[in-house]
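INPUT
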Amino acid sequence: MKITLKKEDLESPLISQIERISAEDLQKCYQCGNCTGGCPVSFAMEIPPHQTMRMLQIGRTADVLAANSMWLCVGCMQCFSRCPKGCSVANVFEALRQLSLSKGVDAQRIEAMSVEFLKKAPQQAIVCGFRKFVG
Amino acid sequence: MPRIGVFVCQCGNNIAATVDTKKVAEEMAQLPAVVHVTDYKFMCSSPGQDMLKKAIKEHRLDSVIVSACSPHMHEKTFRKASEAAGINPFKCEITNIREQCSWVHHDRTKKTGTRKSIDLTRMTIERLKRNKPLSTIKIPVKKKALVIGGGIAGIQAALDIADGGREVILVEKEPSIGGNMARLSETFPTMDCSQCILTPKMVEAELNERITLHTYSEVESVDGYIGNFTVKIRKKARYVIEELCTGCGECIEKCPFSAQSSFEMGLSKRKVIYTPFPQSVPNIPVIDAPNCTKIQKDKCGVCAIVCGPKCIDFKQEDRFVTEEVGAIIVATGYELMPNERFGEYGYGRIRDVISGMQFERLASSSGPTGGEIRRPSDGKAPESVVFIQCVGSRDEKKGVAYCSKVCCMYTAKHTMLYRHKVKHGKAYVFYMDIRSGGKRYEEFVRRAIEHDGAMYLRGRVSRVYERNGKVVVQGADTLSASQVEIEADMVVLATAIVARQGADTLAQRLGIGYDKYKFYNEYHPKLRPVETVTAGIFLAGACIGPADIPDSVAQGSAAASKALGLLSADELQREPVVAKVNEATCNACWDCLTACPYSAIERHGLKNRKGTVVRMVAMVNEGVCQGCGVCVAACRSKSIDLNGYTDEQVFAAINAF
Amino acid sequence: MKIPYYPGCTLNTVAKGFDESARESSALLGIEFDELKNWNCCGATFPLSPDNLIALSAPAKVLSNARKQGDTLTTLCSVCYNVLKRTNKVIKGDKVRRGVINGFMGDDYDGGVSILHFLEVLRDMVGFDAVKKAVKNPLKGIKAGAYYGCMLLRPFEDAGIDDAEEPRVLEDLLSAIGLEPVRFPLRIECCGAHLAVNKEDIVLRLSGNVLSSAVNSGAELIVTSCPLCQYNLEKSQARLVSEMPGYAGVPIVYFTQVLGLALGQDIARLGFDRNKWDISPVLKGKGILA
Amino acid sequence: MTENSAIDRVADSGEAQWQPKIMAFVCNWCTYAGADLAGTSRMEYRPEVRIVKLPCTGRIDPLFIIKAFENGADGVLVSGCHPGDCHYTTGNYHARRRWIAFKSLMEFVGIDLRRLQFSWVSASEAIKWADLINKITDEVKALGPFMEYKGLKGES
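OUTPUT
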């Protein structure tokens, strides 16, 4: 894989939008990987937390937005609680989710959910799920 | 009427290009008291200086002005020349018409530059008229040095000063000198055993007749100033009379009680009367009072019974000795950040998670396991060991922002030692960056990886926990962008290096500066790396910031040479720019005392003939005064003035403006 | 002692057992739950984008209602606790955001309510010693694994009720009521939370890890403080049982249920029937239940 | 020559336009060195400033400033080491405290504070020095000659 770095990509409005929404400074991340190490779901992520931060640092927003990672983050805050730089990747994932939901594409069709589940599952799961996956 | 000579320098074209030096000279000639003027191509050249000297003699000048470059350049030169020609150096003043005139005003018509030069020179003349002849202050020097801290840096400094022919007092707070280096097994990158290279130096320090050791002692107070420090040292109660003890070790042998060994970092126990380690210097035991049943509840006392020379004294109390020294070297070293701060790594809870320093003890042939790598929980040789770097270092949230500098190297060393001792063992290292700047350092790390098969993983560890007898390490390898889990037998934490507890208190006693991490401040980080802003006090080793052995030794020697330079003179000369008190008008409000940054001002009693004190006034200690003049501006009754910058001089300059 | 109490949606429905057992057992400690009048959902998740203030309006509403009822508000559900506490911190600490939120809701809430989890009430107001004294029927000899999950502990700065890496409040409570706490490694890891909605496989894996970590550490009983954890753990245990012959599963209960039991409350009134795994075999095994 | 009013200066300086006189009290270690650096790096700035070198801003007696105005200064600048960088460790803090009190006094007696400025300039801040001098010169120039003080002096 080869990438050609361009100033436009590195300083694209999308990047600053992500920083704005998440209130995280992407440049603070020095890629120690603690987040990926502690993340309960990084095993299933196409782009694990620390790499997500890196991708954004080098302006590859498209790849990050295409990956499943943001939909897997449950916001357990383990990344933040152990990050030596005090970054919260969870916030960044939230920003990514909002960006893609704002495009009107939901990550979960409500009608696709089984009635049986909706009956049995704790409301908090359903409410929270809708808020994370539905625009 | 003073007889002033004015010399205007053209500095080749540097000044002449934008200043009409001739006109400046002529203008000055008009002023009263100016009896000789001239301008010349290069005043600082030897012909220029000769011209100055000649003029002084010919025209019987009593003071001279050189309008040339910045006084920071050539003030000394011209004052020397004037002195040579027989006038007081402080009757020679410089006007800066280059840096602050010809070079910054590019008006080629020379109008601007010339007018400004005239103004500036005129102001200097008015000032100069009020200059008093001053003579440099001479301070006697106590030809003795104090070294605080008996680690490798302190030992090196003490030895060098002693070799330089001066007396040294070496103060160490532990019962033995040697410091942290005495704990290390092998040292990178040469892999020679730490004890083997350290102990000879320790013994040398003990035997050297110019070195006085005060172990188990601490600096209580420091008074005085460069060349003349008075230091009070607390010799903590050892309960063993040093003068009598032969170091036979019988008492240690027979002592029935034991306690955790702080030297072995809690990996093993030692007797309650003990020497920290076999090669301790001096080889005189100490009684660990809190754990001694005799001292606590007057039971036992075996040591006293078996002691041949009868040197055990349970009633012993702290003693104080006072030393007079001319220079002080601070080499108090470092300690390690408490690992308990990082709950996710389980230190103190999971027995097989140990610190790097503990690993040094395990690997050391004089350590608790005789140099065999065995894990604390079950004493088995670990099949796999995970080394975690940057524990607390480069961690703004829970630790410190800086890099501890030596961990990359000693971790590489640890992996080698481990591999050499446990042939089939596998070492894993979690690192963020490998910082191996230093002679043969990078090669050393590569050897650990390529030759001794250490598995380096670029990433931090998030969590360590136990799972059926194993220690599970959960981290990341950022290079493969994956989460990593290792079932290890032992985990070693490369903990951050931090300043010693109480480093700030000592700094306050000494009057030296320290940063927010309590590491001591150099006078200048690049150009004056072992000096402090307080004249006569020098620094060496890790008390300045994380340092490895070569650094510490180099700094020890550097500080020693600085101290020797100071102690080689019989008396110190310093610029007479110091405050002086007018005792007649001083009304003892002591504002100056509180204002002075150097506590150079003392309360002084004026006595009558009978010798009884009739009035208190402020008195400036010329040795301590640095000549900032804060007291002068603070004085309400205008009773203090600053030599070289008297109110009279400054007002004269302003008036001439 | 009467304490303002916020149940939250889940405790009103699928997690009724949690709510009932809490009321019953606290009654025995002289605590009466004063349920918040006309409360609404807390939003079930704290927005991780600081500007998303609209998401704070629901919890803010709860808080300003609570203000009218007192200066503390106690929750049982870890998620409600987390959301309310963090929202309150924002409103209390950030003038600008407070202004926007209040303006939006036509309210003037100042952040004056302090949010408590029932565990905090027991630890700091009642005191575990007092609890211990009140125990009629100590649950001797049962090894119980306390499961914290995320929301009680993280982010420590905003919502931690205890040390983020080495919490002990649940264990302390369990030993106070006679249980034998086992500190299993994964007790602070995530259960999968709302991924239950569409990533069942991941939930199974995460909760499965938690379960095996607990069981392998000898837990005969798992104690939770969050309906969602409870749900996810039970769900994955069901799967494990079906897939692992010989594994019957361990009871997973709310801390309030075992508390009530130890305080001598009638087992029938503690909502155990709503749990998937019956606790009585364990109790019988130890001779606590005849 | 020692006390030439603004008017005389316009006369004897062969320039059509009046030029202000700025007096700068600077410390020896930071600002003076900074000004030297401006020289060695051949920066150009307004020539109206006259420097009085003192060991430390802490040495500055408010009377100096009054005296300067009295002697025809149209503006006065005080500059030293940045807080914490004082060569004498704390001298500049004393200066700052005095300054705060003195400034309000000057304001009270009706001196336009643009004529009386205070700034930290380190030994490396040559550019800052040059800009500072240009700024204060232009501001004072805009204010015109400082006659009020002489007015006061006349009355006394």
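end of record. The mean pLDDT of chain A is 93.
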